[in-house]
Amino acid sequence: MNNRNQELKKIINMFYQAAGMTGWNGNVNEHVAEVFSHMLIESQNCLNDYTWALRPGESDSIMEDIIFQVDSDMIKKLAETNKESTCLEFVIERWDGKLTKASYNL
Questions:
Q1: What is the total count of domains within the chain?
Q2: Among 10, 14, 33, 69, which residue's CB has the most CB atoms within a 10 Å radius?
Q3: pTM, 2 dp
């Protein structure tokens, strides 16, 4: 696994852990990055006061966009919000199957 894939895997695992889950076990590729970008965008609905927005096209790939734009502070805010609601769990429930399929390039 190259460094970009490892970094994205770390971000995805932090996202799942913010929802109280152990992590995600799939393989990372550009298809996974694309699905995960939808999860990030949808997760913004979990935050009332957070103005973060994924800006596609900032780099050569969606994976790089996520790696450069998502930080641990954003994930921590999602985790704090999730303690009060199950919003992240719903996002993961909705997208987990698609994320897994993407890991197999399906």
A1: 1
A2: 33
A3: 0.83
